[in-house]
DNA sequence: TTCATACTTCGACCGTAAGCGAAGCATTGG
DNA sequence: CCAATGCTTCGCTTACGGTCGAAGTATGAA
């Protein structure tokens, strides 16, 4: 009847509260089992199973069998981007969940956005890289400069292996809390993994909050100074 | 139950086919009456009325009474951005409407994205401005350079009046068809209006397609050359 | 005033989909 | 082999919301 892609199908998928909860939980980046997701969504395993198969059919999540568990994850960066975009919009209209608990400030400070760092610290990192011309921004594309390549290599990131992956190395992603860009793409993922691996930070149990250790925070400030 | 903004409400609003049709129709940028929208959505006026009040309550559309007509329009650029984002995602998953008519190529070439030019020509314009450093891009923000100010003034656009409006002068917006940036914001709107006013282009009846006249196309190519 | 148009409200109908209990497959562990 | 865990499928109920006919309100035209 009308031209263009069909919005309503995916929107309807996200539009159910239980499914929205599931997707929000998966924004934390880690794959979760069906029962864990049922718990997060506040429904029984049967119901969650039905929702998950619909999400899978719609191409929003991926499933991976492992023993008697089935792990679900978002099917890609683009899903995360759509969700963040919706969150940002919802926040701008004041549509927040009833219980915005004490976690909220921590969530704004540093959180995981699917698989990379978001929140204030994510934005700080992005700005710091941009100010020192370690990354360059043309239009929407973000690229690593020559100095940038050296910099991230010094941080112990193996660019060669990252560039073998089809996903773009750098992408910018918009924050719902700060409304500014932070770094996504394989490099964004690799940096977050590095924070974990070197004990700069760890992820809170089942939540999107990322907490930096005192030492980790100092190292972060050294690595990503604000001008 | 969970932290963060509530996605499901807005997603549910967009998730109904009739409402999605209404919103897609409003992406054309012009305000439409309730009955026109009912026609576009393929439902009776009563049903459309119900949908429209819901959309209004959700903050997605605005209503303005004029005589015995009620004109509806998207409530802001951000709504358009969310919709375009969803379209892009839907297109990437191959979720296109059944009847992708002969208008499709024209739609990709030049169309209206809420209130500014999108499609190939929109991207061309954006690239041309950026290549000649008439606009500068930092992070996600787009700003008009000094040369840029002179350039658009020469095109007959009054920057002073534009800058009195609260909306940002320049914004970048992502295409679902081309997946690259084009220019939004009040300047994007003003440029499109200028195309109309000088008969470079006109909008097709009730559709998002923008057709340039032969003369208009030539002038466009002169104003926004590709490097 | 009367009629027509534009739109909304009301009420009723109906379809779809969310939800859960119970049972059915898998996989692991004893 | 049997029990336990993880998850799905089936069948059923329920309820929410989309839909439209009919009637009601506003605005404009004759």
Describe the structure.
Two copies of one chain form a homodimer. The first copy, chain A, has two domains: 69 residues, Arc Repressor Mutant, subunit A, CATH 1.10.10; 125 residues, no CATH class. In chain A, 50% of the residues lie in helices and 19% in strands. Chain A has a three-stranded antiparallel beta sheet. In chain A, strands 4-5 form a two-stranded antiparallel sheet. The longest helix of chain A has 16 residues. Chain A binds a DNA duplex (30 and 30 nucleotides) through α4.
Descriptors:
homodimer; 227 residues; alpha+beta; Arc Repressor Mutant, subunit A; three-stranded antiparallel β-sheet; two-stranded antiparallel ribbon; 19% strand; DNA-binding
**Biggest sheet details of chain A:** 3 strands, antiparallel
Distance between the termini of chain A: 53 Å
Number of strands of chain A: 11
Biggest interchain interface, per-side counts: A-B, 64 and 64 residues
Helix content of chain A: 40-55%
Q: What oligomeric state is this?
A: homodimer
Radius of gyration of chain A: 18 Å
Give the overall silhouette of chain A: globular
Number of domain units of chain A: 2
Instruction: Give the H and E element order of chain A.
Output: HHEHHEEHHEEHEEHHEEHEEH
What is the spatial order of strands in the main beta sheet of chain A? 1-3-2
State the helix count of chain A: 11
């Amino acid at each position: 009847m009308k031209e263009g892609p069909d919005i309503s199908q995916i929107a309807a998928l996200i539009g159910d509260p239980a499914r929205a909860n599931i997707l929000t939980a998966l924004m934390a980046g880690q794959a979760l089992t069906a029962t864990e997701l049922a718990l997060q969504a506040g429904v029984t395993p049967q119901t969650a199973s039905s929702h998950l198969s619909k999400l899978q059919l719609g191409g929003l999540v991926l499933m991976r069998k492992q023993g008697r568990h089935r792990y679900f994850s978002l099917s890609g960066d683009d899903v995360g981007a759509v969700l963040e975009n919706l969150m940002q919009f919802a926040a701008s209209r004041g549509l927040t969940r009833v219980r915005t608990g004490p976690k909220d400030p921590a969530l704004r400070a540093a959180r995981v956005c699917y698989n990379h760092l978001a929140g204030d610290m994510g934005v700080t990192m992005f700005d710091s890289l941009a100010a020192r011309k370690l990354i360059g921004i043309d239009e929407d594309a973000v690229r690593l400069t020559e100095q940038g390549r050296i910099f991230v290599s010094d941080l112990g990131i193996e660019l060669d292996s990252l560039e073998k992956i089809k996903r773009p190395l750098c992408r910018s992603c918009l924050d719902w809390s700060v409304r500014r860009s932070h770094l996504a793409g394989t490099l964004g993922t690799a940096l977050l993994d590095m924070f974990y691996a070197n004990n700069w930070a760890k992820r809170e149990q089942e939540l999107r909050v990322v907490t930096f250790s005192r030492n980790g925070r100092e190292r972060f400030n050294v690595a990503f100074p604000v001008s």
